[in-house]
Specification:
The chain is 80% helix and 0% strand. It is an all-alpha fold and 475 residues long. The protein has a domain at 217-475.
Length: 475
Amino acid sequence: MNKYKRLALNTMVFAVGSFGSKLLAFLLTRLYTANLDTALFNTKEILEMCANLLIPVVSFSITDAIIRYGLDRNYERESVFSNAVTVLLAGGAVFLLLSPLLLLYADIRPYVLLLVGYVLISCFRQLSTQFARARNYVTLYAADGIACTLSLFVFNIIFIAWLKLGITGFMLSIMFSDLLSGLTVWLIADHSRFFSFRFVDRELLETMLRFSLPLIPTAVLWIITGFSDRLFIRHIMTPSDAGVYGAAAKIPNLISMVSTVFYQAWNMSAIAENGSKKRSAFYTQVYDAYQAMLALAAGFIIAFDRPLSDLLVVKTRDAAYARAYLYTPVLVIAVLLMCYNQFLSSIYTVSKHTKNSFYTSLVAALLNLCLNGFLIAEYGVHGAIAATLASYLVCYLVRVFDTRRFIPFEVRHWRFVLNLIILFGMSMVIHRTDPALQSPFPTAAVALLEGAGFLLLAAVNFSPLMMTVKKVLRR
């Protein structure tokens, strides 16, 4: 089987497993906006941000090392997994001792015990599912994605819609679904036979930690870049504004969904292809297709921004949600750039230059924080969106040149620029539908302009997609 076909088949397996789960998770936005006002929605977002900040710190980002070294045939999987479990046990113990410090943050004080449980259980699930993926249990990994989100959906209905537990119900839903997922995968894949303290390899442990430790600040910096906007909006403006911004940011996650499905398969192929003489050509072709695929996905979401917002955001709970769709289009472009950065980060992973991943993430985070402080005070929510977009763009520009020092491959910069111009044009059309404007665009004109923009995107990106299809079909 050629490498393009293997990548395509793995992507399809992950897509089947992820599409249902991501769609259910996406629809949860409607459940949350129907049962939580904008201020409570913002509290939920803050708790998620705190959990996402803590997980890589508590786990030492060791799950990334599981994939990198678990897929590498030069290392024993028993040692890789036993090392990872040992690191996670040590990190969890230290976290429990230091967890009272979380009480210093007033917004999360009522939920600290739930947050601790959320973090520890999520670390366990990541350990279990990523090792299954490293053992090439691709189907199990994909099936677990559906089962976990389905259970999350059910638990949310029980705890939030039925029992009306609000934020507590949200936290319990996450904990129960993650615990069920982690245990199920562990038992089915029989991970126990790979774990023993006698399998711990000190030399490999040091190697894994040298790889994973730079990824801790990298992960934290990306979360800061992605979520700091909401904290700035909350304190400079109001919790309600932050809640609306959080709701608007859910629709661009569809781009991230497409990217994540591909990235899971790509990471496996990139590691397998490491050392190949044709590696550069492989990266060039795959990145061309990846960039084209995501640009089309971004154009589609922007074109259907208003109906997607109407479908997912329940405005009867809080009238402020009605403006969420106006913030979405430029956020879609920002997430698109984030996904390009994710692809480039795989080069740092494969080449084991994770320190560069940290440095480039630091540039994005510092720029985001500086711009947020200035732009939100001046332009409100639109200032936060501009800050996010600028930080992801700068990170992309740095990485697209830096990564090719390690794995040389061609990038069609003209296509990247042209795609951005078209997507910004489509975004401006949506912005002109704002009812607050004196002469907002009529629906017919919006449909015509958005349709023309998407067709133009399709024409620009047709060639790399078709070339990749031909390579996949080639024997």
